[in-house]
Design brief:
Blueprint (H helix, E strand, L loop, with lengths): L2 E4 L3 H13 L3 E5 L1 H10 L1 E5 L4 E3 L3 E4 L7 E6 L6 H9 L2 E9 L6 H9 L5 E13 L2 E15 L6 H12 L3 E3 L4 H22 L3 H4 L3 H20 L8 H11 L7 H7 L7 H14 L4 H20 L1
Parallel strand pairs: 1-2, 1-6, 2-5, 3-9, 6-7, 9-10
Antiparallel strand pairs: 3-4, 8-9
Helix pairs in contact: 3-4, 6-8, 6-9, 6-10, 6-12, 8-9, 8-11, 11-12
């Protein structure tokens, strides 16, 4: 199975490196300094589970024509996805499986409109990682996990094949019974973490032990669950204690990628996370007062970064 990894940040870099280390047929789709570093030095992962390097990997420029892949894993930032569509089209064959590993819940809909629903699966990842430098990935927390599946939840041969390759690479991977439910469960975890971290500018170890911000997290998870329910997706009854236990299990200095981007003055996934809760809530008649506050508090800075960028 030929696999293309689009995006070589924390998510794509880590999982792509694990695939390459195992001998899987994986090609990294990159550009600029990242593509140059990958070609020259391969990829290095600095991980709490043990460092490793893959010195020789396949790298493809994002605009190169003429090569079809069996599976395309997308690990760009959510706001980069519209611009990545053109390069993703160049990777498609008749039955190519496209798996978005982005934060948020709207990527499958956008990809289905642009590429055809027959290609698109749902997907998500769990990992605290980032690119410390081009071709150097730092994994600092969470058991790296991928969940994915056909949008109609059938167990297709192509999903089974990809699952086997991921597991052979030592990646914790799963085809959940309901991929939409799994995506929304992750959404209920990452979006409150992003919002509270972005507004307070402190790591999870501080805000989860501060009663006032811990209460904010509980309220925010409830809002996401209410939006999901209004859209026909019933999340687990124990979603709140489960999500809070996940926050409690993170390293004290852990931060969400949105928070790191906000604090570094980079464009963030504000629209795909907090903005999506507010937008989808309004469409569904659900009040999302806390998410609206966090979204509006972060919006001026986001607009300034994008204007100056």
């Amino acid at each position: 199975m030929k696999i293309a990894m689009v995006g070589v940040g924390g998510v794509g870099g880590y999982f792509g490196a694990k695939l390459a280390q195992s001998g899987a047929d994986v090609t990294f789709v990159a550009r600029g300094a990242t593509a140059g570093a990958l070609r020259s030095n391969g990829i290095r992962v600095e991980s709490i589970a043990g460092n490793f390097s893959v010195p020789h990997i396949r790298v493809r420029d994002e605009r190169s024509p003429g090569e079809e892949f069996d599976a395309v894993l997308i690990a760009v930032k959510a706001w980069q996805l519209p611009d990545a569509i053109a390069s993703i089209r160049l990777l498609l064959g008749r039955d190519t499986l496209v798996v978005p590993l982005l934060n948020g819940v709207e990527a499958p809909e956008l990809l289905s409109r642009e590429l055809g629903q027959e290609h698109v699966a749902g997907g998500l990842s769990a990992i605290v990682a980032w690119a410390a430098a081009p071709g150097v990935i730092r994994h600092a927390g969470a058991d790296p996990t991928i969940m994915f599946g056909e949008l109609d939840n059938r167990r297709s041969d192509r999903c089974e094949s990809l699952l086997g390759i991921l597991r052979s690479a030592g990646i914790t991977a799963e085809l959940p019974p309901d991929i939409q439910r799994s995506m929304w469960t992750k959404f209920a975890f990452i979006t409150p973490m992003s919002g509270i971290g972005g507004v307070t500018r402190v790591p999870v170890g501080i805000w989860r032990t501060t009663p006032e911000t811990r209460a904010m997290a509980i309220a925010a998870v409830k809002e996401v669950a209410a939006v999901a329910a209004a859209r026909g997706i019933a999340l687990d009854a124990d979603l709140i204690p489960l999500t809070m236990s996940r926050y409690d299990g993170l390293p004290p200095d852990a931060t969400a990628s949105l928070q790191r981007d906000v604090m570094s003055g980079r464009p963030s996934e504000l629209e795909a996370q907090l903005g999506a809760v507010v937008r989808l809530g309004a469409e569904s008649g659900v009040v999302t007062q806390l998410h609206a506050f966090m979204y509006h508090a972060l919006l001026p800075g986001e607009r300034l970064v994008r204007k100056n960028g």
